[in-house]
């Protein structure tokens, strides 16, 4: 599929983050609804071309746990990069929990399974580390599928964005904050934070919910105890899984392989939870709050 800017009609804006803006578009020749992400970057034409080349690896990332990729191109003025991907019609877990409150525990099991399988696919098949696991990068559609997006495929994108923004994230692991290189286990930490956030319905740092500056937050992550679930509200297996993901010592933290064998994940695999029915209730709740 050769994507060209002139074949896409804007339907609506979906949101904006640190690195870009996302809109819902329709590809006229194929009638496909897509999500188009525009990433603005101050980069030389040569670098932008290299980024486009690096992004073609996305064509090979095919998994039911990964948002699929349609193509990328430079925008008219050649200043920005547009990435077209599968449109996920129920939205991100961040948007969902902010509208509906904490995510029900049975759904958390299916989310855990999808994210771990997605990360395991990226690393196992492509040696890609995600680097940005958080609720806004886990998307849901009305078929009940849960998929991850916005992973760091392109070394050049990572560099250019790091040059443009101070690359801090609330989901960064203690070792990353202290300058260690990224490993899959850093994604495991970010996922642990994400799971607690989805389970309790708010970002879990600091425990008392007070507002911190970015620097204070980073100091807190490095120096204080990791977040925990409120006692007695969740299953022992879920509690144990999140504790393991949030081991501050990276060498104590489990790998994806180990996590996929955790009793919580094994049980989630076997359980027949109707995620599709849950997405219908999410849609009803969003319709009445908007
Ligand atoms: P950050 O820039 O810090 O990573 P973010 O993930 O919220 O934050 P974007 O990745 O730019 O920022 O996404 C903006 C919003 O667009 C998301 O919150 C999500 O709700 C929506 N979105 C992104 N991709 C899709 C998609 N493929 N389908 C549907 N909605 C999407
Ligand atoms: Mg995102």
TrEMBL record:
The keyword Signal does not apply. GO terms for biological process: pheromone response MAPK cascade. Residues 8-265 form the Protein kinase domain. The keyword Kinase applies. Keywords: ATP-binding, Kinase, Nucleotide-binding, Phosphoprotein, Serine/threonine-protein kinase, Transferase. This is 4793_t:CDS:1. Belongs to the protein kinase superfamily. STE Ser/Thr protein kinase family. MAP kinase kinase subfamily. ATP binds at residue 37. It holds the Pfam family Pkinase. GO terms for molecular function: ATP binding; MAP kinase kinase activity; protein serine/threonine kinase activity.
């Amino acid at each position: 599929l050769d994507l060209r800017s002139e074949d896409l009609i804007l339907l609506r804006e979906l949101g904006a983050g640190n690195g870009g803006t996302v809109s819902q578009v329709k590809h006229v020749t194929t009638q496909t609804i897509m999500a188009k992400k525009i990433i603005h970057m101050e980069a030389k034409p040569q670098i932008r071309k290299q980024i486009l080349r690096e992004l073609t690896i996305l064509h090979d990332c095919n998994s039911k746990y990964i948002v699929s990729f349609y193509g990328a191109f430079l925008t008219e003025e050649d200043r920005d990069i547009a990435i077209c991907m599968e449109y996920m019609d129920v939205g991100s877990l961040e948007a969902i929990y902010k509208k509906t409150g904490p995510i029900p525990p049975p759904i958390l099991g299916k989310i855990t399974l999808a994210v771990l399988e997605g990360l395991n696919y990226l690393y196992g098949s492509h040696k890609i580390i995600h680097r940005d696991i958080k609720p806004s990068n886990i998307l849901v559609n009305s078929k009940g599928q849960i998929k991850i997006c916005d992973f760091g495929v392109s070394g050049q994108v990572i560099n250019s964005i790091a040059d443009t923004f101070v690359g801090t994230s609330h989901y960064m692991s203690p070792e990353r904050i202290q300058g260690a290189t990224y490993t899959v286990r850093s994604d495991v930490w970010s996922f642990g934070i994400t799971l607690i956030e989805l389970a309790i319905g708010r970002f879990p740092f600091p425990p008392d919910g007070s507002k911190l500056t970015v620097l204070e937050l980073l100091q807190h992550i490095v120096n204080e105890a990791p977040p925990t679930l409120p006692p007695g509200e969740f299953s022992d297996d879920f509690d144990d899984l999140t504790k393991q993901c949030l081991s501050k010592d990276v060498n104590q933290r489990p790998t994806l392989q180990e996590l996929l064998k955790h009793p919580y994940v094994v049980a989630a695999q076997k359980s027949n939870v109707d995620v599709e029915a849950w997405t219908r209730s999410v849609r009803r709740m969003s319709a009445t709050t908007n």
